[in-house]
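Journal club side-thread
Mid-discussion, someone asked how the predicted structure for our own chain would compare to the paper's figures. Pasting it here so we can look after the session.
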Amino acid sequence: MADGEENQKTTENVEGSAPEITTGRRVLRVIAVLFMCFLIFCAGSYLFMNRLYDGRFGYGTWVGGIYATGLRPSEVTAILDEQMNAGGGLPAVVMLIGRDDHRLAIPTEELQIRTSYAASVKKVYDAQNPLTWLRGILGGVRYTVTPKTSFDLAALENAIDQWEIFDGTEEEEKGVSIERTSAGYRLVMQAAVVPLKEEMIRAASEKISGGEYFVSLDMDGSCYDERPVTDADRSVLATWAAIEETRLPSLSYLIGGEQIPLDASVTDGWLLTGQELHALTNGAGNPAAAGTGAEDKDTEEPDVSGRFLVGGESVPLPEDARDVNGFAQCADGKLIFKEEEITAFVDSLCDRYDTLDKERDFVTADGRTVRVPAGTYGNRIDRDAEVRWLTEAVKTRASEEHTPTMLHEARQLGNDDIGGTYIEVDIGKQMLYYFVNGRIDTQIPVVTGNHSRRCDTPPGVYDIYFMQRNRTLRGEGYVSFVHYWMAFYEHYGIHDATWRGDFGDEIYLTSGSHGCVNIPLSEAGPLYQKLSVGVPVIVHE
């Protein structure tokens, strides 16, 4: 009986689980159906999207900042190209820059440069797939594109081939040289590095292809090759070091507020060259090495003689002097100064700044420019003293701002030695003008020397050298007492003339003075108080 009850319970349990199994199967069927529907939906969506965006960019796609959804690659390319051209388009030239700021400008038209986004846009389009579409639907997909540049490589090669930096550097290695310029000698490193044409073409091509039109080839280390230093180079460098040692550190003249530096533009010309050495020794000196000497376009036959400065000593031409790299050098490598060039420099200062005994142009009170003869006023440099001083300064390599010793000194040094405070006597207008700091302070009518009796007041540039109150003037046939005497040249001066009632006009032609400048007593006193010894006096017709 127990067995029967157990079998009955088992049967009941089996029958009770049947509904649960049926429900599970139904759930699985539903899931399967839903999954199939999802797959059908995805496939349908893919087919729909593929159909909808066939040949176009998918949903939510941005290319180069352009919302490209639904646009063909050609349309996106056209928009990007138009934006690029609207921003200025291509430059007029492609600029290649080498070392030492050597530049080559190549017209853009000559290179036939063409720039377009087509290749980059096509690459983005070809990369589209269902995953990118899904990303576009969920949040959008953004692509960065760059334009592709094409150009005529043969035109680039031809332009670089004609660049002046390649003149002779491939066929002939140029070394170091010393060159004469207006600023003095300079060291020329013509081939410290050699440009490499093929590497420059390669580097320039890569930059232009990348859309760069201002190309620095100096930054590309492969475009230049270092040139080895030769023995000839070392010899020239040693000569250059000797030249730099001869240059004066800080020596200059100060004349009338103008500084005249004795820099390389001056002192380098004092060095004895190899050409001059040959002239002195009748060609016995050693010839300079070809291509390494100092180059000077002035080829006049030199005539150098006298004494020379070598290492601070004044000597005749050294017997061991020889031509090295275009310069006369002693066996110990010292260069040779020409003492006569020092004298010539001082002479040039005298010619330029000596104003004594020289005619000069003068701007009158009424604006005319007249030529005034020399008088007793002006500057004169002590030539001999300055030759001695400058020779010693060169020997000792002095550092000084030097004012020259004067034999005769005006109120101020320089070419404008008159300055802005002076007296002008206009014989033609019979007027005296007293200028203070460039402005007329006083105007006085005058009577100058009697023209008909040939007692004319002498034109020239003078200065007040003596002043006295209450003086008796004596001359041939006259004795005159004056209250104010202002002498400017020998017995000529400015003074009051109480015996005259009128001044100015043409009185001087027939009734002028014995040569002095007569002025009214009422004007003489105030003028006398304003003047002092040394004030320039310019007398002109």
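Post-session note: Residues 4-16, 284-293 have pLDDT under 50 and may be disordered.
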